[in-house]
Fold this protein.
Amino acid sequence: MTTHTATLRTGTVAAAGALLWRRQDDQLQVAMVHRPKYDDWSWAKGKLDPGETWVEAAAREVLEETGFRPRLGIPLPRSVYSMQRGTLKEIRYWAAEVMSGSGELENEIDEVAWLTPAQAQLRLSYVRDALQLQAVVDADRAGTLQTWPLAVIRHAESVPRKQWDEPDPLRPLDNDGRVQARSLVPLLAAYGIERVITSPSTRCFTTVQPYAAAAGIRLRTKDGLSEETFEQDPDRSTRHLKSLLKRGEPAALCTHRPLLPSVLKVLRKTTEPDSEFHEILAVAAEDGMAKGEALVCQIAGRGGSARVMSVERHTPS
């Protein structure tokens, strides 16, 4: 699955949202919002702003409509339907947990209700919204709703080697790369990334530095993620990834193209060989990731029991 700035045929309206879920007394609950203007009950969602990605819009709209900051989880089925005068609308959804927020509502929404799936089914104003609800229920029954995100990032565009006379690890991002680095900030924030490890090379460090600064977290440099160390000890890069899998916390890893096949191979081992996720990771490893690309896996469990439940590739626009 590739997620990027919305590219739709002319006349199609792009929107995004999420189903917030929680457990109350060991009972699954989902959040529904009520719009007094339409007197309807549905999921928190809204249109994309110009230049905004689906993921960014989903996180922003949920925060604006519910007052809760979400951590996006597994993608859910999308909705595509005709509006007035035949205009198509496409809405992409994610399951999400609450990270923070006061729950204070804006004018457009006058009530947020936490309901059991059965209660939510009865309150839905639109039949099409049942598809996302059923996906959440199915994932919960399968034990795949509770996940944590792991983002693998290739450093952004940098000054070409032939134009750089100093040591290669000091080679900086170029103008396009700095733009790509800034664009990662809302993306990683939507997934609630809490830990970032990176190659100490300048082009990697400065790719994720804007996010770390915005999130108020410390960047952790790992020599094993650098090209120079990889040439001497290829296994160190995979040890860093396995350490993240063992921790089981929302995390990001930023490195170089030569290391990606080894890193992604470890993730492929946590998927079923005939699954779409196995194929996506195989393609990314074989064809390479674009500079500034973030590949986000939602993972259930940790350590030896870790299993990839979804894969999204976010390529720079």
Remarks:
- Residues 1-7 have pLDDT under 50 and may be disordered.
- The chain has two domains: 13-142, 148-314.
- Residues 56 and 268 are 27 Å apart (CA to CA).
